[in-house]
């Protein structure tokens, strides 16, 4: 039986261990293997390039090095990273850029993600709640690497982490190019080397602002290995959407006869294309139903506060801080008592953040002092406007908040950060946005943006634009350790509401990044030294309210490694002037 098993499952190449040394024993082992069988390549990481290894297989090298090696014709050995894309915690940002290089250069043949599964043990904490235990949970001794082994694309219970979707997307072997929008023609590329697509059907659908309006099927695909074939989508008819609405095409490939372990209807490959882009508009423009002579914005001023009322909405400003402290819609409170709508420049550090020391580098942005310098209110062409000026000495910046209440009952918020151009060695920002807290009854998020899983600026290819309705409770993903979670990019509209539809809707003149959790950022933040705290997502107790973050953007996640590498520069927020605008309006 053993011989039969070897015959059927013969190894294709031999691997020596990594993180060892290189010496004559390895060379003799290589010579022995080659004398016995010359058909199988041998790889050894510690051999480097000029040694007895047939494959150059370093670990955790960045994009620039990967491209430099791959583009050098004098370097002939295949390039496969023996470890790369460290998947620790909320990670895998920038996986896209690795695979763009892998597909660009035949010599660059991939790598081994480190690693498959978070290595934690299911136990109960003192309160009886289930947690995944890791190094340090069993006493100070023996020594441990803390949560360093929690670096998988699936959790210890084998539930896929959100970043597993990104891996699945870039590992798919069928790709689509849109060649004719009007006729519905696409080019199907079968990236497989040995398998045709005779067992695959193509499913497609058209969506308008995230809602499916047409769908169809191409039952048979005649595409051989490594072939590109143009295919007409059967039943497709281009439909121009209503003014300002977005039209997207989604294609998905499914096996006719499922492979082992593959459930029926599983998408083995999928892509989305924007046919007609979303019509972002001037948020200060009055709505069509406001009428030619809308009711004016009412102003009520007291010693400590100022209230503006229009339409269904009332907004109260604290004159001593400048913040919005209260908001209601038809008398229903929309803000949890004791919390304000405030600027938010911080995120709960991820494992990658901690490894790179980003929590220390960007610490001035965690809670910068904000000194109120001027509070102004006046009528304006659009309605009434409150402008508040702050000094932020900790980050050598000024902040100008502008709130415009429109007659139909919409609040337009602009946040403008002005930095000191002469300041030296100032850090970038983890996030540029605002945050508020809504009462717990507003426990549903309904949005048009990327989903259904959380996604980030450098990890969102696998999350498609769509109209999603989810519970607030489902937005936080239970990484082994608490950290940043629940973000959504390319948001067109974000609504936080109750079961009856009452709540608030947020949108802007360009895409936003939004999140709503049952946790404050502080609940997920382990401070400057994470090793000082043995925290677990299972320890968290959800707050009885909904924490809403409406941001221009936040920094990417990165994935090169978890002990020093930062996200790519294009996914960071520099120390520079920043400005963004969003609207708050009743959801019904």
Walk me through this protein's architecture.
The chain is mainly β. Among the domains are: 158 residues, Glycosidases (TIM Barrel), CATH 3.20.20.80; 105 residues, Immunoglobulin-like (Sandwich). The chain is built from seven helices and 32 strands. The strands form eight sheets. It has a nine-stranded antiparallel β-sheet, with no helix packed on it. β3, α4 and β4 form a beta-alpha-beta unit. The longest helix is centred in the N-terminal third of the chain and has 13 residues. The N terminus is likely disordered.
Largest sheet: 9 strands, antiparallel
The CATH topology of the domain at 2-159 turns out to be TIM Barrel
- In helices, the fraction of residues equals under 10%
Query: What's the gyration radius in Å?
Result: 27 Å
Query: Going across the major beta sheet, what is the strand order?
Result: 20-21-22-23-32-29-28-25-26
Strand content: 35-45%
Broad structural category: mainly beta
Mean pLDDT: 94
Distance N to C terminus: 69 Å
**CATH second-level architecture of the domain at 2-159:** Alpha-Beta Barrel
Q: Would you count the extended β strands for me?
A: 32
Attribute tags:
five-stranded antiparallel sheet; Immunoglobulin-like; disordered N terminus; mainly beta; 588 residues; globular; 35% strand
Q: Can you give me a brief rundown of this structure?
A:
With 588 residues, the chain is mostly beta strands. It has helices at residues 2-8, 24-36, 63-71, 95-104, 164-171, 351-356, 358-361, and strands spanning 14-15, 42-43, 79-84, 108-113, 121-124, 130-133, 174-180, 185-190, 200-208, 211-218, 228-232, 247-255, 267-276, 298-301, 305-310, 313-318, 324-329, 332-333, 342-344, 371-379, 384-392, 397-406, 410-419, 431-439, 444-451, 464-471, 488-491, 493-497, 503-507, 512-517, 545-554, 578-586.
């Amino acid at each position: 039986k053993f011989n039969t098993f070897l015959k059927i499952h013969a190894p294709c190449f031999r691997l020596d261990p990594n993180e060892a040394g290189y010496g004559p024993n390895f060379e003799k082992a290589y010579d022995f293997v080659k004398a016995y069988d010359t058909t199988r390549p041998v790889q050894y990481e510690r051999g480097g390039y000029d040694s007895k290894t047939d494959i150059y297989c370093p670990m955790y090298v960045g994009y620039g090095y990967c491209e430099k090696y791959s583009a050098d014709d004098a370097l002939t050995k295949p390039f496969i990273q023996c470890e790369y894309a460290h998947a620790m915690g909320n990670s895998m940002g920038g996986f896209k850029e690795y695979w763009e290089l892998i597909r660009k250069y035949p010599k660059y043949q991939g790598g081994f993600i480190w690693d498959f599964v978070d290595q934690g043990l299911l136990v109960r904490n003192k309160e009886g709640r289930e947690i995944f235990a890791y190094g340090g949970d069993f006493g100070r001794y023996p020594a441990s690497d803390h949560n360093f082994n929690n670096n998988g694309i699936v959790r210890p219970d084998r539930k896929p982490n959100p970043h597993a979707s990104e891996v699945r997307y870039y590992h798919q072997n069928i790709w689509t190019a849109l060649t004719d929008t009007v006729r519905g023609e696409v080019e199907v590329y079968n990236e497989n080397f040995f398998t045709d697509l005779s067992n695959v059907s193509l499913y497609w659908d058209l969506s308008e602002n995230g809602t499916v309006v047409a769908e169809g099927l191409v039952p048979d695909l005649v595409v051989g290995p490594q072939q590109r074939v143009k295919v007409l989508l059967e039943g497709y008819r281009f439909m121009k959407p209503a003014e300002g609405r977005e039209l997207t095409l989604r294609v998905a490939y499914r096996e006719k006869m499922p492979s082992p372990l593959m459930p029926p209807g599983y998408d083995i490959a999928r892509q989305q294309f924007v046919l007609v882009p979303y019509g972002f508009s001037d948020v200060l423009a009055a709505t069509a139903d406001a009428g030619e002579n809308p009711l004016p914005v009412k102003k009520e001023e007291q010693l400590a506060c100022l209230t503006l009322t229009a339409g269904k909405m009332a907004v109260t400003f604290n004159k001593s801080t400048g913040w919005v402290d209260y908001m209601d819609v038809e008398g229903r409170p929309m803000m949890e008592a004791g919390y304000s709508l405030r600027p938010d420049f911080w995120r709960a550090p991820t494992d990658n953040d901690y490894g790179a020391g980003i929590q220390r580098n960007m610490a001035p942005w965690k809670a910068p002092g904000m000194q109120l310098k001027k509070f102004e209110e006046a009528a304006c062409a659009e309605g009434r406007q409150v402008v508040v000026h702050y000094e932020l000495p900790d980050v050598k910046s000024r902040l100008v908040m502008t709130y415009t209440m429109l007659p139909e009952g919409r609040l337009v918020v602009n946040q403008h950060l002005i930095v000191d151009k002469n300041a030296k060695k100032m850090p970038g920002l983890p996030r540029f946005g605002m945050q508020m807290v809504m009462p717990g009854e507003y426990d549903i998020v309904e949005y048009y943006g990327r989903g259904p899983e959380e996604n980030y600026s450098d990890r969102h290819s696998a999350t498609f634009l769509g109209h999603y309705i989810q519970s607030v409770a489902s937005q936080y993903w239970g990484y082994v350790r608490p950290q940043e979670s629940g973000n959504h990019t390319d948001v067109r509209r974000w609504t936080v509401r109750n079961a009856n539809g009452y709540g608030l809707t947020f949108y802007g003149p360009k895409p936003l990044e939004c999140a709503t959790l049952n946790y404050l950022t502080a609940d997920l933040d382990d401070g400057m030294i994470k090793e000082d705290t043995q925290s677990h997502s299972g320890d968290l107790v959800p707050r009885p309210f909904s924490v809403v973050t409406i941001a221009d953007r936040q920094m990417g996640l990165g994935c090169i490694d978890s002990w020093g590498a930062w996200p790519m520069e294009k996914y960071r927020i520099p120390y520079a002037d920043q400005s963004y605008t969003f609207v708050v309006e009743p959801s019904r």
